[in-house]
Design goal:
Elements: H1 3-7, H2 17-24, H3 26-33, H4 37-45, H5 49-52, E1 55-59, H6 61-68, E2 74-82, H7 86-99, E3 106-110, E4 127-132, E5 142-147, E6 151-154, E7 168-177, E8 180-189, H8 195-210, E9 216-221, H9 233-244, E10 248-249, E11 256-258, E12 261-263, E13 266-271, E14 280-287, E15 297-303, E16 314-316, H10 320-332, H11 336-339, H12 344-362, E17 365-367, H13 370-373, H14 381-395
Parallel strand pairs: 1-14, 2-3, 8-9
Antiparallel strand pairs: 2-15, 3-5, 4-5, 6-7, 7-8, 9-13, 10-13, 11-12, 14-15, 16-17
Helix pairs in contact: 8-9, 10-12
Length: 397
Amino acid sequence: MTESCYLNQLPFHFITDAELDTLLCTDAWNCVSDNDTFREFLCDSRNCDAVRNLNFNYMTEDQFNSTFGSNIDIELGLFHVNIRSLNSNCVRLYQYLQLLAVHFDVIVLSEIWTTNINFYVNSLPHYSFYYDIPLYSKVGGVGIFVSNDVKHEEIVEYKLASSACNLIENVWLEITKNHKKYVIGGIYRHPNQQIDNFKSSLEAVLNKISTRRYPCLIAGDINIDLVKCDSNRKTMEYVDTLLLNNFVPTIVMPTRITPRSATLIDHIYYYEGIKPYEFLKIVSGNFFCDLSDHLPNYTLLINTTAGGKATRPLIRIFSENNKEKFCSILQSASWETVYNQNDTNVAYNNFIKILTDAYEQSFTVTRLSRRRLKDKPWITKALKKAVELKINCIKNG
């Protein structure tokens, strides 16, 4: 591999020397590190204990891995970034995610754009992709990659309508992990729109969700600068709407940094549900990363109960019924998309998709039962029968 190939993997390789010098100058970073306006506003004006106790940091991937890479029980992990064209930055996104020690359950992408969007449905291994793109422009859109290790389905009842004066794309999912349900929302709100229109439509959805018992996480590039919450009345009213519906912003410091400004326009909101899990701790932050001109964000729900990580692993059950179901799905599948293709690569991809879909439907991921967890691998069926026989003999004298 040539030297230039190695250089392409270095952070900030794709920006000019002048841009790097500007980005790393002392004044620019001081603008970020000293800009705690929004957190102070929430804590002082709204007495928001959830934000006061929030563990928020800017992190490199090495700092993140050393903090969360081991001995941390992550109940749910969400990653968000304004990707500015999935077609252009898919490979770089995948490479960056590979650097992180945490396997995120949900990856929300803003500004996925419309270019070749269908080609990226299977771009992240072991994830399913849901997306919403603009109808009359290639710019914008939002997508959610959700891990196949959790159960998931799209829900449309929370869908926000898009119009000329309220131009937005959004996706809503219901996922189940560790027998707990969560509502996940991904939103991209186009810039230069009226805040009132968006606030009114979002408030109706937040009100519906806040009456349910399930926790909710909403992420996206909202293009409302929360740093201005104490100086802009519309922004303040928008934050009030979030808090009145029990949604707490978890990203509290700037996410888009230029030589002349530092704005907090990429948001993640968390609603803990009617019956919150007291053992959960919220950890969030921004990554120092040049995937795009926005910093990626993360929010982790950390399990703080004694005993460390959950010991019941996720498994697939290969019972006879599930095997029969697998065979039945394959027998009834339509293979025309494989045999009628002249391109062998397309035919192979269609073949693999049919097999993968049948496999996922037949052998769904489930949590190992507490009873089976107690099983020891050396205890065979014959030994179990012998133990039962001995117990029965003792009982019967």
